[in-house]
Specification:
The complex is a heterodimer of chains A (237) and B (150). Chain A is α/β, with parallel strands linked by helices. Chain A has 2 domains: 52-103 and 165-237, no CATH class; 106-159, no CATH class. Helices cover 41% and strands 15% of the residues of chain A. Chain A has helices at 14-28, 82-91, 111-127, 132-148, 175-200, 213-225; strands spanning 35-40, 59-64, 70-72, 75-77, 106-110, 155-159, 164-168, 230-232. In chain A, strands 4-3-2-7-8 form a 5-stranded mixed sheet, covered by helices on one side. A two-stranded antiparallel sheet of chain A has the order 5-6. In chain A, helix 2 (82-91) crosses helix 5 (175-200). Chain A starts with 13 loop residues before the first helix and ends in a 5-residue tail after the last strand. The model of chain A has no long low-confidence stretch (mean pLDDT 85). Chain B has a domain at 44-144: 2-Layer Sandwich (Nucleotidyltransferase, domain 5). In chain B, a hairpin with a 2-residue loop joins strand 4 and strand 5 (87-89). The longest helix of chain B has 15 residues, at 20-34. Chain B is elongated. The chains are: A alpha/beta (237), B alpha/beta (150). Strand 1 of chain A pairs antiparallel with strand 7 of chain B, so a sheet runs across the interface.
Chain lengths: 237, 150
Amino acid sequence: MAKRNIGEINAGSMADIAFLLLIFFLVTTTMEVDAGIARNLPLKQDRIIDIPPVTEPDVLEISVNSKDELFVEDQRIQISELEEVSRSFYTINANGIVVDPTMPEHDLISLAQCQQKINYFQHELSLHPHNKIMARKLQKWEQKKSICQLYSSQSFYEISTMAIVKIDNQANTSFGIYIQIQNILKKVVNDLRQEKCTELGWGNYHELNEHTKQGKERLKQLRILVPERIIESKIEQ
Amino acid sequence: MSKFKKKGNKDIPGVNTSALPDIIFMLLFFFMVATTMKEVDMQVDVVKPVADQAIELEDKDNVDFIYIGYPMDASQGTEPRIQLDDMLAPDYTFVSDWKQMKAREGKTPFDIVTSLKVHKDVGMRIVSNVKEELREIDAIKINYSADQRD
């Protein structure tokens, strides 16, 4: 059979086709990245199993009126001062000595204490195996134990477990100022967690990966060392 | 008497365009990769607040977006409104039904993050009402949309 000569394909219109597609994507492209501050709302009231009583020094009350003026514990402050105030909320009494009695106390958590609590809750759980509160408390103390083991002193100072930041808004408070407050609170917590990471030789906090076993464990420990608890009061209708 | 004698054809040779498709394709691929299609037609005007601690939203398929802002259509008034998908919601009580309707298979409202894209001048009452609605159905994972700027 004779070999047939296949003619060359004319690629001249290729550019036109590519141009057409290019223009389509150019037009539909939006380059914006979706970014935001992630938060969890509190669970519905009837889902919360134990509500601990909250005492005054444990609460940092930030309120904003309808003119976007900021008050912390009823004192008027500027938004630029909020970072310092919320930072001292976490750190001022951090070494167990009460420097400022209006801020939350820190308790020394030792390895022996953790072990004692773990033993207690394990015993309780063996009697009531379906008690979810007990199971959660056991988990918490096991994590605290693992934190103790990170330090050479086998102990650490934990901020009061009821320490909480409360944001009070009015109906006309702008969303912009609310986000500024959230941003500052996030920044303080991120900075403090970063400091802990550096102290423990873990490197960059933002590079801890939740999908690895080690990263997840460290993030959990950081959440105990620098807890982020925010509540908001409901706006009256 | 020129030393360099011009010889032969004086025509300018045609530009070789055979590499043009390659260049265009390269651009095309760049835009294809960088493209995210617009999800909805905006009915409300949203100017996002700025927050330098904002982090990029991951796994956008598992995120629902709620827009709260001032209606672009003047006949809808000037009060801030809630946009769910392509529609303006009459009021905030529609949020929980909408959220439940959007539930993906095998997932509860709890698993799906709700991103709130809110205009920075909107008052907190409407935001608070929406959050209360979401809380009612355990959709407690919230993301406050903001622009990162350092």
